[in-house]
Amino acid sequence: MIGSSAHITQLPGLSPGTLVHVGKTRSHPVRIRLVQFDEKEVREDEAVLPDGELPRVSEGRVLWIHVDGVHDPETIEKVGVVYGLHPLTMEDIVNTEQRPKLEDYETYLFLVMKALSLESRPGSRLQTEQVSVIIKPGLVLSFQEGNGNFFAPILERIRSGRGLMRKRGSDYLAYALIDAVVDRYFLVLETLGETIEDLQDEVVLAPGTATLQRIHAMKREMLILRRAVWPLREFAYNLLLGESAIIDKSTVLFLRDVHDHAVQIIDSIETYREMTSGMLDVYLSSINNRMNEIMKVLTIIATLFMPLTFISSIYGMNFHYMPELQWRWGYPAVLILMALIGVGMLGIIRARKWL
Amino acid sequence: MIGSSAHITQLPGLSPGTLVHVGKTRSHPVRIRLVQFDEKEVREDEAVLPDGELPRVSEGRVLWIHVDGVHDPETIEKVGVVYGLHPLTMEDIVNTEQRPKLEDYETYLFLVMKALSLESRPGSRLQTEQVSVIIKPGLVLSFQEGNGNFFAPILERIRSGRGLMRKRGSDYLAYALIDAVVDRYFLVLETLGETIEDLQDEVVLAPGTATLQRIHAMKREMLILRRAVWPLREFAYNLLLGESAIIDKSTVLFLRDVHDHAVQIIDSIETYREMTSGMLDVYLSSINNRMNEIMKVLTIIATLFMPLTFISSIYGMNFHYMPELQWRWGYPAVLILMALIGVGMLGIIRARKWL
Amino acid sequence: MIGSSAHITQLPGLSPGTLVHVGKTRSHPVRIRLVQFDEKEVREDEAVLPDGELPRVSEGRVLWIHVDGVHDPETIEKVGVVYGLHPLTMEDIVNTEQRPKLEDYETYLFLVMKALSLESRPGSRLQTEQVSVIIKPGLVLSFQEGNGNFFAPILERIRSGRGLMRKRGSDYLAYALIDAVVDRYFLVLETLGETIEDLQDEVVLAPGTATLQRIHAMKREMLILRRAVWPLREFAYNLLLGESAIIDKSTVLFLRDVHDHAVQIIDSIETYREMTSGMLDVYLSSINNRMNEIMKVLTIIATLFMPLTFISSIYGMNFHYMPELQWRWGYPAVLILMALIGVGMLGIIRARKWL
Amino acid sequence: MIGSSAHITQLPGLSPGTLVHVGKTRSHPVRIRLVQFDEKEVREDEAVLPDGELPRVSEGRVLWIHVDGVHDPETIEKVGVVYGLHPLTMEDIVNTEQRPKLEDYETYLFLVMKALSLESRPGSRLQTEQVSVIIKPGLVLSFQEGNGNFFAPILERIRSGRGLMRKRGSDYLAYALIDAVVDRYFLVLETLGETIEDLQDEVVLAPGTATLQRIHAMKREMLILRRAVWPLREFAYNLLLGESAIIDKSTVLFLRDVHDHAVQIIDSIETYREMTSGMLDVYLSSINNRMNEIMKVLTIIATLFMPLTFISSIYGMNFHYMPELQWRWGYPAVLILMALIGVGMLGIIRARKWL
Amino acid sequence: MIGSSAHITQLPGLSPGTLVHVGKTRSHPVRIRLVQFDEKEVREDEAVLPDGELPRVSEGRVLWIHVDGVHDPETIEKVGVVYGLHPLTMEDIVNTEQRPKLEDYETYLFLVMKALSLESRPGSRLQTEQVSVIIKPGLVLSFQEGNGNFFAPILERIRSGRGLMRKRGSDYLAYALIDAVVDRYFLVLETLGETIEDLQDEVVLAPGTATLQRIHAMKREMLILRRAVWPLREFAYNLLLGESAIIDKSTVLFLRDVHDHAVQIIDSIETYREMTSGMLDVYLSSINNRMNEIMKVLTIIATLFMPLTFISSIYGMNFHYMPELQWRWGYPAVLILMALIGVGMLGIIRARKWL
């Protein structure tokens, strides 16, 4: 009996009862990795659902179940039922358009995060992937949409037995997962910083319409990053208040570190935002300046040639009695006059600093 | 004895005593649907007011009374008196220009929401309809302005007996009603998202005055959506604090879901808003760029032809002693001079990257 | 012994001791209306101050004293001394440049509000009038600057004995006065709404400098309305918290209604504000668009005629050896050439969508 | 042993030990006025420091010591040591670049305010002067930078024995000092209001670069006023919470009045700010409109004369076979043609509403 | 066993275990200065790590260990282990891209600040250096990136024995360190103030693209300063709440002073920000005004010469029957006509105030 609220693809108000995947269409096979460890040993396994068995949580050990792919509602439901998840939790796991959040379901904590990755092809579009984590004493469930390897280094740390990982409980493992997601934000931030420096040069040296579009593309990426980080800051703060019994006191210090990182990222985004608005000013005034340049050229040309053409048109008139036309030196005199006027005009233009 | 405050159509300060409908003129007959259910059975009926009878609330059952149309004050008053509503509640039900809100009248909770729907005709104008819900133990009263079928799927779920609906109390039914209203916001949001993508193409490829007006039309729709959602977020939060005795603990989790959705919508609107302001920048700079284009053409034309016309006007002068005019190759020489000047000017223009 | 702080017309720091009226000069005679009522009867009277007597507050009755005109400090002082008002209260009553506020002087509540009215002459300028209300058990004092009839309908309701008025205490009467003032804001809001719709048409169809000034005039009116409503929202909220012993529990619900209205007005103003900023965008871009139009015409004219004039100026040259001039079909050939160039130029212009 | 932090003129981190005056260089002799009063008598005196004696605080009396000039650290130190001031308080008194603030040093309250005055010469630049006030039971110390007469009226009130001054303690005297400073803000506000009205006319009738600079000068003055008032509002609020034992309950009402005034000033500044941004819009669009005017004239001229000049240049060509040239009525016919084209062009221009 | 999160240069999620320096590459040798003092004597020493010994904290004395350079993780780790620092603290010390913050690790307080300095070369770029301070009873550890002499004056004060330094505990020493960092901000602020005044002149007298870039460079510096000060204000506030047992009551007053300074700096930055946005307005309108100037010249030239050239082109036509051409005074008459038209045009231009 599971409530569904697949808001975007379904009619509103429909009867709940089936989990509906919301998000990008994915078809890769769902993989479930089982890792069980204590200070002495690590057991790794893979589960095949819906038919396979899922291990029980045993005291003194940490069980980590990582699910690659949430597009198969049946699998999620099976996992959920085995480990006692609330229907709304399962619904949120399969709906990948969630906002990052932390929810306390009393017997467990439920986290939704957005893992970011940069595509390597030019244009560097930001990819978002939803990561859900459930923390129970002795158990961590993690779900991700695609098949990125965000958590490979953590598995490595568990295997190697170095660091605190094997000595601590599920809350420390969860911290490590959160930290792995947040650390990727710094990579995105770094790329944004480089883009901003490129753009700052471009805006001053060779601004064009493409520049504007690149600025706005960057702003969009900043927005995505901010939407991923902002709620995380909030919930890291809530976690570190230490009110949940699931989080150990000694882990709280590490969560404060996560909170710090989130604040630092938001801070940098604010700085980038200010720099971006500065770039927009420079861009817009450079358009205006270029207009000024063009207008100056036009005005210089007109100022030079309109009076001269007027003079020559006078002596192109066909009046019978135009004494200048008979003068021996009339023509050279007019040419000299024109030259003088031309030089005078140029002088005035120079004086106005248009050349 | 009911206070009226039909603010807009009446003189202020008038004596209270009659309920006055405020809002769009409606004339469809008011329908009152009665649904009574417990885990075993469902009874449906329709009431004809003001003469008909209204059922009593009986323990162990949930009574849902849904009123289609609030433009008949007499009907509302009858319902209100039977179920013990405060005069101000009745006043708010008939005044359809309310802001969404939650009010705790101790014996019941009173909710006002805005149901949104998109008209199917082109231009996709947003329609707002006020929905009021009253929650008492064992009783849910719902009122809507028009005759939309927002709640048909819920009736269906009651009939079918699937899900939690029949097993829970009036608070769960109320949650279902709120959820149905909120789910429609996602439809609106989706349409807004599509409009934004259209506009982003339009702004880059073929911006015009109509584009600007479409951007502002979209901003207005965003505003309507935001005004509907913002207070809802607030009151969903208040509900989930679980302070009201009318809301059961187990329903609080579902209300948290509603709150989440509201936050998610507000979040998306913020993103859209940023994107819109980006589009305005692009639009304005595209106007300036087009101006630059036009000015460039003008300047190119003038730069090319003004000097040339000046030269030909010189040899159009009628001085008697102009030796060049007698030269055998004078004419071709001038033509070649002009060609050289023309090519030179084009070269300068090219160098400035105007062509 | 009354402190004065007639800030604007007096030197700062002067010795207190006299009440000084601050605000528009008024000279109409001050009228004092006395209304005493309980559930059974209503007694109305008029007092002549400073010589006349003022009635005492008697238990079981509500005494309402309404003063029309605060420009005569003597009268206010007399009233203040009789009913035990603090010097600062009296000072605030005669100083009509107060911000709306609520002050709790323990034995009474002191409210300052701004009553708004729209002048009927064209241009619809907003008029502000300060209304002060003092609430004591069994006593309501109200003061207004001018001689508007804001409270006539309330007197009517007292006389008629309908509604709750005669059954409730001074706090309900005070609520009715506040409500009468707030209801007038909706009239102003409605007018603003209409102005906005007019302006939206004007901005699209026939924008001019006057449009801009009308937009800003409207913004000013929005500002006045907001300044009147914003503090009222705050103090209505404080009142409805029900901490004052002077306000009865049953009146609190009505004050919540006032609070709601204030919030609703502020909300509408925010919407109008967004729409106004949209109009400014449209206006500014319409100026730019018109500039573009003008420049296009200029460029089209120049693009058409400069090359043509150049060609004809060539054949206006007086070289002796210009073979074309002798050709029989030279003239028509040139005309045809010109026509072709003209058509070609028009074609290019068309291709650029300038025509 | 006094810590110094003369931040701007000294190297940071230097050893504390001497008070260093920070601010405008002043050289007028420091005057110390001693006023001691109770309900029966007033004793006035002047102290000569560093050699002179300072009176003791005696019960039942209020001692007010006013120091004109804080540029002599020795004097301040002497006063500070006699009346038991904390080193940081003394440091803040001589550093006249403080932000307005209220500090509770348990045995006394320390206030810093900014007294504003307008210079009478044209351009009306705002002058800021720092006023520090220390309130102890039975003692008020006040310090000001220059030799303005802000507090002369208060001395007058003490001498005359009218009002509450002589009946109340040092807290009421301190209130009177604060009130005298705040009342001066209203003068500044009034001047700002007048400047805004002038500017509004100027912006519509004769906008120029000077207008823009005047707008920004006014914004700067608004900023200074706001920086002086904003913290004052805050600390007046803190004072009126009545938590300090030094402030008597009956004085709290008067401090609420000060708080009200601060709020009112901030409110007005917000209004002025909105009006200013409106003026900037009008100014910028008037520049654009003037550009439009100029371009229209240019376009009209070109539209009229380019085609005409082209026609006449045609008949200026020297082809042998141009039949029109021989026609008897050729010349007048061309003139009429030109006139018709001119009129036609004017008609088109009219139709576009450019004339 | 120390967790590393060198976010920017390492792959995310790596196993912790080594401290990794993040920030500018530095290679100067790490110096460790040991200062131990009580009221009677001062002992100074230098430690050579990793081999050397570090002194113990002894009661009644203050031990100050200052580390110049954090790019050698081994040294930091040694210091950290000796004095019992948490791994996350050590990580934050070597990662110099922290945001200023205050962390309470129960046995000690950990502060991160940004020391600012201005490079003396033209362009005055702001240099940021991270300073970390750890406060324990009887012990202060301070770490800085480079080899600036921020704290030399404090060492001087300790040596000289003047002031409170030798009489107080480690919290007062820590306050002195914080104060030394904050005092440097005033120097930066002063430079910013001077730059703004320069820019204000430049914007009015000789605005160019470089001006815009200088404005934005200044905005960036303001941003850096604000990012350094803003969190400091917050944590100074937290410190002065006096909740930490490590901070003595008597030191709280000094921390209030630090808080005041931070608020004052933020306040000034806000003012500068408003002034900067004013400068941008002036700059943009000056570009537009210059465009207007150019367009005026163009229009004047065209208005003068187009009609005149048209007239002379009329008399350049070759019609056989043009009676004016035979007139004796035709030529001078046309010249006079042209002069009159020229003067008339100039008159119109003058009337429009374009000259």
Keywords summarizing the entry:
homopentamer, 355 residues, alpha+beta, Beta Polymerase, domain 2, Methane Monooxygenase Hydroxylase, Chain G, domain 1, 8 helices, 7 strands, disordered N terminus
Task: Describe the protein.
Five copies of one chain form a homopentamer. By secondary structure, chain A is α+β, with helices and mostly antiparallel strands. Chain A folds into two domains: 31-284, Beta Polymerase, domain 2 (2-Layer Sandwich); 295-351, Methane Monooxygenase Hydroxylase, Chain G, domain 1. Helix content of chain A is 53%, strand content 14%. Chain A contains eight helices and seven strands, in the order βββααββββαααααα. Chain A has helices at residues 73-82, 87-94, 152-160, 170-205, 209-240, 249-314, 323-326, 330-351, and strands spanning 31-37, 42-47, 62-68, 101-104, 109-118, 126-136, 139-144. Chain A has a seven-stranded mixed sheet with strand order 2-1-3-7-6-5-4, sandwiched between helices. In chain A, strand 1 (31-37) and strand 2 form a beta hairpin. In chain A, helix 4 packs parallel to helix 6. The longest helix of chain A has 66 residues, at 249-314. The first copy, chain A, is rod-shaped and about 120 Å long. The N and C termini of chain A lie far apart (80 Å). The relative contact order of chain A is 0.08. At the A-B interface, helix 5, helix 6, helix 7 and helix 8 of A face helix 3, helix 4 and helix 6 of B.
Short description:
The structure is a homopentamer of 355-residue chains. Chain A has 8 helices and 7 strands.
